[in-house]
Write a structure and sequence with these properties.
797 residues; alpha/beta; 5-stranded parallel beta sheet; 6% strand; disordered N terminus; disordered C terminus
């Protein structure tokens, strides 16, 4: 039989025995009063957190894990979520009054509450006086666990909310032994450690709508009749975006607006537009103490080991929206060893890997600005300038290799050590935002030659694969940088490059101005090659606004120059544009012959990308000439090539053109299949212009097939998409198609309105011919409004 221990208590005294120790309370010195339901008040508003609340409530229910850690960036709303959810659990009757709150201050400069102090605080909550607790930390932990075990034996569940833990050590001893109890921890770190089995619930920033709602709520709580939220919703949405949808930043912005009722939301949005001063603008003076995002980030940054802090700072050298592991290793000099340190930054909520396992790392926008500030302060010790040069040089080399493999200016290369075409294209597509940003970054940091070199390598890919906006932004950056150098030859090239990008973006007015300027500069410097290029592009801009005779003269002059210089590649390119001019002027036989010459030259030169351009131009001319079968055959040939090149955008456009050509030869099933494949490609790539054009044509096909409801839906969607894409010519075409459909449906007033709308659109882009046609059609609708049946015959003839 084991040893027995006996004790006797007099009168009101009692004995508690835990793990071999015993404590005897003298009469009249019983337990201290318990802190029943020791929760702070729930937040006034918990906006946009329905999903996390539902998930967290599920974890606190019976059968959930004993420990849950809500982790996330400073200011993301972890405490608000935890406290609100704890109140919800109380409402559900799960824990009665046995809910306790501990503020651990884990990121305070003094280190906050230690693990033993946290246990001692919990014993106080449970009714023990300090004088009555065991002297040793181990004894207090044992007593704490015994108290929780007693609750469990009585069928009573306990919830402990441990807020703002900075380490596992602060909460390890609080872990309840009984499965019935819950420890809910909030931390900027994803608390994981051997022997500590907590379920981690990462908390991200708010979605756009709830972020704006939270901001408006902060203003209206101070001033219920404040007109700014309803008067300036777009400005509030802009503020929310510039706050990175971070609740702390939104709260500060709301306090700024509430503290200055005369400050418009638009003014604050403008202040926050400047990235360099944004963190300063998101600071609120609270009784002489600055409260804001930077102060919150300071506490997280101060906890970083030196090597992780350096990586945190150097990651901002990468100007793209995210950074792949290899680039992080290159920037920091860590090489393959960098991933564990990146993972440590993820655990500290200073970085995320999106998606998990992808090797692509992203910072919150405001955190990136903070890291950039710290990086510039430590630039010398970090070797920031050297890291920047190394990083940009690697991008230049990698882009050059990818362009060589794709063969955008010459036959593609292949062989040992080179990526495949698919790999090169995947790299360019994936890193396109980084590469475009890197051009601007190099230009802004004074590395003009690097910016020009990278832009020259990148431009053909951006042009041929349909990335007009990145091309335009890049060209503007380069021109601004080149202007600072005072080099006239480089300036002429940069102006011409911008003109080319403007042509791709269909901004014909500015394109004409820039290309005219470039042509003058090339002629002043006797640069015949540049002169030929500027003339070819200028002719294209003339042609786009139907100045066909001027276009033909410019293209003919460009052709003569390139033949004089023996530049056969440029000659082949000009033959395509000159052939288009002849086609528009009605000289179809000459146009077809010229396109065939261009096609033969491109094949001889091995330029598959521009071979497709020549085939498309030839197919267009054949279609106008009424040679439909030849047209379809040529376009099918182009489709085979572009599929092989992996050019999804060009595949989609080619499918659209094939479907339009097939309409005239009566292959209905094939028409619909081609349109639908094109539409799916454009939709997947987020190409709203392409979607709108396909829907315009698909709607007309539905009308021919008698599917008027589908036609109407397609045309209405096309109008919306093309307006969003700011394609004026496309909008005009969609409005005209919608007018046809409305006319067939007998909705003649709406048809007339849309013909007039189309006419105005064509007028805005300088298309006088189509403007006149739409005016005539609007007049015809007015005339036929009393005889609607005749409209159908007019349309179907």
């Amino acid at each position: 039989m084991g040893n027995q221990q006996w004790a006797r208590a007099d009168e009101n005294a009692r004995i508690t025995q835990v793990a071999g120790d015993h404590i005897t309370y003298a009469a009249g010195a019983g337990p201290a009063p318990r802190a029943l339901l020791g929760l702070p008040d729930a937040p006034a508003a918990l906006v946009g957190r329905d999903g996390p609340v539902k998930e967290l409530v599920g974890l606190l229910a019976e059968g959930g894990p004993p420990v849950v850690v809500v982790a996330g960036l400073a200011g993301v709303g972890k405490s608000a979520l935890a406290v609100s959810t704890a109140h919800r659990a109380v409402e559900l009757g799960w824990f009665g009054d046995r809910v306790f709150f501990l503020s651990l201050r884990g990121y305070a400069p003094d280190g906050g509450v230690s693990g033993p102090q946290a246990v001692q605080e919990m014993l106080r909550h449970l009714g023990l006086r300090d004088a009555d607790m065991p002297e040793s930390p181990e004894g207090r932990v044992a007593l704490y666990r015994a108290r929780l075990a007693a609750f469990a034996q009585a069928g009573q569940r306990v919830l402990i909310v441990a807020d703002d833990a900075g380490s596992v050590g602060q909460v390890r001893d609080l872990v309840p032994a009984a499965d019935a109890h819950r420890l809910l921890v909030t931390s900027r770190h994803r608390l994981v450690a051997p022997g500590f089995a907590g379920r981690v619930l990462p908390l991200d920033e708010l979605a756009e709508g709830p972020a704006a709602e939270l901001l408006a709520d902060a203003v209206l709580r101070a001033w219920p009749d404040d007109p700014r939220p309803s008067r300036e919703p777009e400005a509030l949405a802009g503020i929310a975006r510039r706050c990175g949808r971070l609740p702390l930043a939104l709260a500060v912005a709301g306090a700024v607006l509430a503290g200055d009722p005369g400050l418009s939301a638009g003014e604050l949005a403008q202040r926050l537009a400047e990235a360099r001063s944004r963190l300063e603008a998101l600071t609120f003076d609270e009784g002489g103490v600055p409260v804001g995002v930077r102060a919150a980030f300071d506490l997280s940054y101060a906890r970083l080991p030196a090597d992780q802090a350096r990586i945190f700072r150097l990651l901002t050298v990468n100007p793209g929206p995210d950074c792949r592991t290899g680039y992080a290793g290159l920037l920091t000099g860590e090489g393959e060893d960098v991933r564990p340190k990146l993972a440590a930054l993820v655990r500290a909520s200073l970085l995320t890997e999106q998606p998990v396992g992808s090797g692509r790392w992203r910072m919150h926008d405001l955190l990136r600005l903070y890291a950039l500030e710290r990086g510039e302060e430590c630039a010398e010790e970090d070797g920031r300038e050297e890291a920047t040069d190394t990083f940009l040089a690697d991008l230049v080399v990698s882009t050059g290799v990818a362009q060589e493999v794709l063969g955008v200016n010459s036959p593609g290369s292949s062989g040992p050590g080179l990526p495949s075409v698919a790999q090169a294209l995947d790299w360019l597509d994936t890193e396109r935002p980084l590469l475009a940003a890197a051009v601007g970054f190099a230009a802004d940091s004074g590395r003009v030659d690097t910016a020009v070199e990278l832009a020259d390598l990148l431009a053909p890919y951006l042009q041929l694969y349909g990335h007009a906006q990145e091309h335009l932004l890049m060209a503007r950056h380069v021109l601004a940088a080149v202007r600072t150098t005072g080099r006239p030859d480089a300036l002429a090239v940069a102006v011409c490059d911008l003109g080319s990008a403007l042509c791709q973006a269909h901004d014909w007015a500015e394109a004409t101005d820039r290309l005219t300027e470039a042509l003058t500069r090339f002629r002043e410097s006797s640069d015949r090659e540049g002169e030929g290029r500027a003339l070819n592009l200028l002719g294209t801009s003339y042609s786009a606004v139907r100045r066909y005779e001027e276009a033909r003269h410019a293209h003919q002059e460009a052709l003569d120059i390139n033949r004089e210089l023996g530049n056969r590649h440029a000659e082949a390119a000009v033959l395509v544009t000159l052939g288009a001019d002849l086609q528009y002027l009605g000289r179809l036989d000459e146009a077809i012959a010229m396109h065939r010459q261009s096609l033969a030259l491109m094949r001889e030169l091995g330029d598959r990308h521009r071979e497709v351009i020549a085939l498309d131009a030839l197919g267009d001319a054949l279609g106008v000439a009424g040679r439909r079968e030849e047209c379809v055959a040529v376009r099918e040939e182009a489709l085979v090539i572009v599929r092989g090149l992996g050019n999804r955008t060009r595949v989609a456009w080619t499918l659209t053109w094939i479907a339009s050509s097939l309409l005239s030869v009566g292959q209905a099933d094939e028409v619909q299949a081609r349109f639908e494949e094109a539409l799916s490609l454009f939709t997947a790539d987020g190409n709203r212009q392409g979607e709108g054009v396909v829907l315009t044509n698909l709607g007309l096909f539905h009308v021919r097939e008698g599917r008027l409801a589908q036609a109407l839906e397609a045309h209405e969607r096309a109008c919306v998409l093309l307006a969003a894409a700011r394609d004026q010519a496309g909008q005009a075409g969609a409005a005209r198609a919608l007018a046809y459909t409305l006319g067939v449906l007998g909705r003649l007033t709406e048809a007339e309105e849309n013909f007039e709308r189309a006419a105005a659109g064509f007028a805005a882009v300088g298309d006088a011919k189509r403007e006149a046609e739409c005016r005539e059609e609007a007049a015809a609708v007015r005339e036929l409004s009393r005889r609607p049946r005749r409209w159908w015959h007019r349309f179907t003839r």
